[in-house]
Amino acid sequence: SPVSERLVCDAPLLSPPQVLLVFAEEDEQSSGFRWACDKAGFRCNLARTPQSALECFLDKHHDIIIIDHRHSRYFDAEALCRSIRTTKASENTVIICVVQRHTDREESSILPLISAGFTRRYVENSSRMACYNELIQLEFGQVQAQFKLRACNSLFTALEKSQEAIEITSEDHVIQYVNPAFETMMGYQIGELIEKELTEVPINEKKADFLDTINSCIKIGKEWQGMYYAKKKNGDSIQQNVKILPVIGQGGKIRHYVSISRLCNDNNKVEKTCECIQAESQTDTQTCRHKDMRKGSLDVRSTTSRGSDGISQRRRSSMARVHSMTIEAPITKVINIINAAQESSPLPVAEALDRALEILRTTELYSPQLGTKDEDPHTSDLVGGLMTDGLRRLSGNEYILSAKQTHQVAGSLSSPISLNDIPPRITEAMENEEQWDFDIFELEAATHKRPLVYLGLKIFARFGICEFLNCSESTLRSWLQVIEANYHSSNSYHNSTHSADVLHATAYFLSKERVKQTLDPIDEVAALIAATVHDVDHPGRTNSFLCNAGSELAILYNDTAVLESHHAALAFQLTTRDGKCNIFKNMERNEYRTLRQVIIDMVLATEMTKHFEHVNKFVNSINKPLAALEENGNNGDGESIKTVLRSPENRILIKRMLIKCADISNPCRPREQCIEWAGRISEEYFAQTDEERRQGLPVVMPVFDRNTCSIPKSQLSFIDYFIIDMFDAWDAFADLPNLMEHLNNNIKYWKGLDGRNLRVLRPPP
């Protein structure tokens, strides 16, 4: 159509292309490209280092990047290109590689450059006119093509928002795209339809001769329009007014079919008609875009639906606040309200509410789509390893754990020392334990890998835990020693040092002013105890491993939150089986039940499959309401802020977020601590991969192969996917500028190693 032609073809005329030149030194080649940019009227920037190039690109979003690949002693051009390609902004950027001219040896392959993300190469030629010709060819070739692809996002957004059901198939009638309206009308999800032949999906109910009539029309390049009976996924029949358009592509042949349908109005039914209209010719580049964009259509929907986030967030928040109502579940009330609203709503609103109901009836309301991140094996392996309960067991091997394992109890341990009898070296190692930069590894060395007892004694004394629990210091000492003895010192990461580190982070967060305003003394006690026991008896293997191995724990807990359930249950078993270490024995029954409930909830919150649910609820129920109060000038309105902070539901969200952040705060620690933790968790994952291969189990995280894994890449993937958003939200609540500074510094450190293609923890001397 004229509108789409103008949208796609005129886009390059809106503004001149922007060019980024990345040359370590000024020479005739860089001067030639600068002159060419001036002559062509292109806007040009110059960068001397990979870091400045990346920063400049993220600021300007250039259309063309020209990187000097002739002198590897200055920087790694391929590594820079890969870094740029990891950014969303580079999706439509043309990146050129300038290579040396060699006349005395055989032509080298261009494949390594393509693999690094370069669009094409330019053999060095400092002639100004050669540089100018290269830029002009790029403008009317790759750059213009990329502008057309950008414009297609708008067209697909229109498809996604269309109230008419739209289906696109290939010339062989293989489904390549359906829009949300089609999913709603037919009751299918897009994943059930893509790459399926129409014959595999029970969409039509018409007789064969009627379908032959339709095919005879569209196969000669004409539109067909008429009444069509279709069968939904649930078996219900519906009558549609359908238009099917053949799209002419390469070689003048039909390459796609577009079907546009709308439900017939029962009050306005018409007789079946069959009308053929000559189809307009389309260019091949336009038709191919439908196939190219079908995967991206999911991303388009997720980005274009963000405008309704405020409504969905208020809905989720309100559901949380009415959770105590016992007549019917909150989600049922919401669905009933929407159903009632549909009865008096116009058709477009009713259809939109249908879509909302489908989403609300799913089980995963908070889990995000990976988008482009799932293309990174480090991210996909981490997500698979941490956020799933494993594949079904594929071998007869079984991993025996814990059910018959003996655990250390108070009577089998030596008598712990008093807080007043701590050796000077240990006392010195704990001097700054109230500061975030406290070095847990120094305490680990001073205590011979028993930091939890000593740090626990000091922190619990500072928070008055014995007074609250009405227990003696000797009982607390025995309890801490029993808990520490049941952490596995053989684990490189999940040992008592990790527990002490999480305890320290928890105590630090509890000391922040906003947190102190929010939580009661019983919450503080629960948080410190939960941090202490949250990984007790951890085997150094993930939940996915235990489920795949058919371990006794996985069977006991039905493959659901296996380790977290075990940590919580064992902690209370160890505590209550012996009066010498039972810190709860003097508590009043109802207070103990409340404390126990909070501890269990916090330990279970460390399970990663619910990560995004916890973070999103925190943002929607706490961050955003507090931000709204500040924006409305109510920053000093203590009652309004107190209402947000002190509601029982929000206090639960804050406690969950607190222990989650404490549990995975390693990337926010000072650099040397961050590096040490990264090495320890990598070694634990390497050991799991080794064991999976020995036992013939599914390898949950194949990227964690000790011979090939890039630790910097794995850290960057973990930080990008799990850490940044969560700590942005926690920082906005608790005010933690020092943590965010460490996080940014550590990101730069890992990127520096990755940019040099180093796979190790530290650069070579």
Automatic annotation (TrEMBL):
UniProt keyword terms in alphabetical order? cAMP, Hydrolase, Metal-binding, Phosphoprotein
Cofactor binding, per record: Binds 2 divalent metal cations per subunit. Site 1 may preferentially bind zinc ions, while site 2 has a preference for magnesium and/or manganese ions.
Q: In which pathway does it act?
A: Purine metabolism; 3',5'-cyclic AMP degradation; AMP from 3',5'-cyclic AMP: step 1/1
User: Per its UniProt record, what InterPro entries does this chain match?
Assistant: HD/PDEase_dom, PAS, PAS-like_dom_sf, PAS_fold, PDE8-like_REC_N, PDEase, PDEase_catalytic_dom, PDEase_catalytic_dom_sf
* Annotated positions binding AMP: H494, N495, S496, T497, H498, D535, D663, Q715
Q: Which cofactor does it need?
A: a divalent metal cation
- Specify the PAS domain's residue ranges: 151-221
Q: Which domain of life is it from?
A: Eukaryota
Q: What does this protein do?
A: Hydrolyzes the second messenger cAMP, which is a key regulator of many important physiological processes. May be involved in maintaining basal levels of the cyclic nucleotide and/or in the cAMP regulation of germ cell development. Binding to RAF1 reduces RAF1 'Ser-259' inhibitory-phosphorylation and stimulates RAF1-dependent EGF-activated ERK-signaling. Protects against cell death induced by hydrogen peroxide and staurosporine.
**The name this protein goes by in its record:** Phosphodiesterase
Q: Which organism is it from?
A: Molothrus ater (Brown-headed cowbird)
